[in-house]
Fold this protein.
Amino acid sequence: LFNLLSYPANNVGDPFSSGYYGLDSRDFEVEVLEWFAKLYKAPSDNYWGYVTNGGTEGNMYGLYLARELYPKGVVYYSQDTHYSVSKNIRMLNMEHIMVKSRRNGEMDYNDLHDMISTWRSAPPIIFANMGTTMKEGFDDIDQIKKVLNKLAIPEYYIHVDAALGGMTLPFIDGSPKFDFTTGVQSLSISGHKMIGSPIPCGIVLALKSNVGRVARAVEYVGSLDSTVSGSRNAFTPVLLWYAIKENGFNGFKKLIRGCVRTADYAVKKFNEAGINAWKNDYAITVVFPRPNEDVSIKWKLAVQDNMAHIICMPHVTKDTIDEIIKDLKI
Ligand SMILES: *Cc1c(COP(=O)(O)O)cnc(C)c1O
């Protein structure tokens, strides 16, 4: 794909409408979006999306749509939510309430219930996680809907931050559901996490009927101005397209099965070595007590408070785990 870098390509504007610019990879981008739309069971005649610069932009887009639909809405998100969310909420000037998390990183639905019941007059905008950053906790869409139904909330919006889980859960049998049939209205997925694009990127998907209320036609570029960025990367959609063609659904399934196996192995071996490690069901992130600085720096471990984690991505092998444990025991 290197050759493509010799062209000043630009996907400026809406991926589904052709711009005046001409030198773009929109056809590839649309194929990528189609693939993800199928993966998350989006209604085939009512989805929209684009390839973003990363998870943060996809989350911003989802929140932006929600705010345009419900200008008086209040955003509910758990304590374990990624730091990009408080930034996005500040930039969008949205009312927000932080909900408690359970110890495994998942939202506390009792607290969600209590919070929504105090602010009942404002439409809730639920920011759910399919894989929190530190503990890879999954918020249960069914539980969230139960809370909304119990309180007889007529209007609400659910956005899912599936930065990591968006590319792992659909390939794991029996994993929690967060597709469009569950009532989710937008999704943000990372392209540089599980897919492993060498250039940061992401995918955002939303219901087209909602997007129609936000998009504005711009004559200058001959396209709908429905994206956060104006000029957009034309190279990353091709990287994603290539990875999808190379792996296919079954290829990803095999890859992710390997990740889950490594994570299970890690929990077992850590515990055998007397280190208190654990992981959520269907997760590939192993959480354990924060080790000393030398080990964290050597292995580039992400640390927060008294925790550290290893995300068992495809390049992490059982040997890697054994090596880390050896270092932890010194
Ligand atoms: C990585 C991550 C993001 C977004 O990250 P970008 O750096 O913008 O791609 C958002 N949410 C979660 C849960 C993440 O793990």
Summary: The chain has a mean pLDDT of 95. The pocket of pyridoxal-5'-phosphate is lined by residues 54-56, 82, 84, 129, 131-133, 161, 163-164, 190, 200, 202 (CB under 6 Å).
